Amino acid sequence: MTDAAAIPAKTGRYRWSIVALLFAATTVNYIDRTMLGLLAPDLGRELGWRESDYGNIVLAFQAAYASGFLLMGTLIDRLGPKIGYAIAITVWTLGHVAHGFASAVTGFMAARMVLGVGEAGHFPAVVRSSSEWFPQKERAYAIGWVNSATTIGVILTAPTLALFMGVLGLGWRETFIVTGLFGVVLLGLWWWLYSAPRESGRVSEAELAWIEHDPPEAVAQLGWGRIARHRSTWAYASAKFLTDPVWFLMLFWLPKYFDSTYGVDLKLVLLPMIIMYLLSDAGSIAGGWLSSRLLQKGHSCSFARKVTMLASGACVLPLLAVTSLDNMWLAVGLIGLALAGHQSFSSNLLSLPPDMFPKRAVGSVIGLGGFAGGVGGMIMAASVGAILDATGGNYTVIFAACTVVYFLAVGMIHLLAPTLARVEEV
Question: Are 361 and 220 in contact (CB under 8 A)?
Answer without folding.
Answer: yes
